[in-house]
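Possible regression after last week's pipeline update?

I re-ran a chain I had predicted before the update to compare outputs. Posting the input and the new output here so someone can diff against the archived version. Not blocking, just want to make sure nothing changed silently.
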Amino acid sequence: MDYIKRFTTREGVRMSIAVTTDTVETARVRHDLWPVATAALGRAMTGALLLAGDFKNHENVSLRIKGDGPLGVVHVDAFSDNTVRGYVDEPHVDVPLKRAGKLDVGAAVGHHGEVQVTRFTKLAQDYTSTSPIQSGEVAEDLAYYLYTSEQVPSTISLGVLVDPDYHTIVAGGFIVQALPDATDAALAMVEKNINELGPVTEYLKEHPDGKGLVEKVLDGLTVNEVYNEPVSFKCRCSRDRFAGVLMTLREDDKKSLLEDETTELVCHYCNAKCHCSKKELAAMFTPTGAIE
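New output (post-update):
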């Protein structure tokens, strides 16, 4: 069901929508996330997918939110093939609800810190920029980042609804941006539509597939769909990549690992585990594979 769609209008407004329920649920299960961690990471993963708007140039985006809250760092990588991965430093965090049924993501992320975004494309040098956290609620922080660091006025709405049994009910969001030729009338119309829409999680709860969302937000404008692709959680880790990391260790650390019969490596991004025997490590570390 998960997807990302992008739209343009004749009136100079563009919009992207992402439904990420299954993607967020996969991350929750892999990392054994508690509800507020699911909400924070889910919003960040959805936001990173929406930020990677340069799909023609195969752009990858790395998002790092480092606040002073108990979650620690929220780190997400969104790739040009619309796959995404991510983690939080502390998956088992519990903070008081804002109100009945409303997770306090801002308290978990923290109200002070920074948002860092790195864009990777094949056509240009990697670009990294930062901005201060505004609320810790993620959507507002990303909108502020786009306005101050990339000079793109944007409205972002992100949401993750988590069931009492911890599973992800719905997740998704959208971003609306004004292009240079946007008319004041069009922007006023979109602002009115977004205010009437309310929280995106409430809409997705009633419409889990996101159907009709673009028509509500861009009501009154001439809309053209330009992109529609599936989205999923996927990590780039592999046994070869784990081996590459091991080869960068200092010689003393390599010798220390060879003292154990088995070494377990864990990927931060997806929690996958790789086990290497003493014999395998010896073959990796020494040309002859001899164990000293």
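Follow-up from reviewer: compared with the archived run. Residues 288-292 have pLDDT under 50 and may be disordered. Marking as no regression found.
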